[in-house]
Amino acid sequence: MTRAILGFGFALVCMGVAFGDEPNKDAKPNPDAHYHLGPDSLPQEGVPRGEIRGPFVLPSQAYPGTQHTYWVYVPAQYDPAVPAALMVFQDGQAFKNEKGDMRAQNVMDNLIFRREIPVMIGVFINPGRRPDQPEPDSHNWGDRDTNRPTEYNSLDDRYARVVTEELLPALEKDYNVSKDPEARGIGGSSSGAIAAFTVAWQRPDQFRKVLSNVGSFTNIRGGHAYPDIIRSSEKKPIRVFLCDGRNDNRGVRNGKYDPAWDWFLQNVRMKDALTEKGYDVNYSWGMNAHGQKFGGAILPEMMRWLWRDGPVATDPDDAVERDFRRPAAGR
Length: 331
Prior knowledge:
Number of strands: 10
Strand order of the largest sheet: 1-2-4-3-5-6-7-10
Structural class: alpha/beta
Distance between the termini: 53 Å
Number of helices: 9
Low-confidence stretches: 1-20
CATH architecture: 3-Layer(aba) Sandwich
Number of domains: 1
Radius of gyration: 22 Å
Largest sheet: 8 strands, mixed
Shape: globular
CATH superfamily: Alpha/Beta hydrolase fold, catalytic domain
């Protein structure tokens, strides 16, 4: 029976070829085809799962008339008596999407459990919008009908104020978040990535770890100036992981090439400027297009690298250090 089915399938293939249905030899391969989520991005048996709370709505003073929706990830190991690290993700709907490309809550569950990153509160915050505007979702991230372009792509300090002066005080009312800027990270994709960098650049007293996936360091609102700004400015105590792909948007507009609109080139320029200035920077270049396929596949490694200096004990008799992190008492 098996042989018969295989034979029938082979016959159909041959018929397809005979009738001119062979694959188009000129078709370009999908640059994202080889990027898949690994086990660290998926729920694993025996790993305590954190809780995502929300949505919550935060009125904005930095952008009057707008509000930000956010969700809070609370790991199973969170103990209110112990200050927790913090990781803030822009375009929160995309990073927490259970069927999406990032699934950051699963990554944090798995890595916290195995002591590969500290116990941390995660925040998934969406770009600001007026109450009459739609909430960004997986089909519409809000570039055309929310405040996303202004907030994320501008190089001023207003979005940093949203995070440090509006979001942080709201979090600190309910959670014991570490005051140490070394224990605070921020990240995003595309315009959310340049927004994350801008927050850390403007407020290194509050955030010192930046995760950037296909960052829009381009001339949407002057982001291509960052490499020169970095070189001409005093070095700041921030750590950055950049990832992008050779098939990201490459700057052809109206039939002409404009390097200021070349995402991959500008990410490489960011890496070069940060490296020359002596920053703690890591980077990875894939084949990917503009999106989250490659970034999602390597998100666990990006998180491990950014948080690699978490406290450890080297005492061989420390049974707690050699065990997985268990849920906190009462959880």
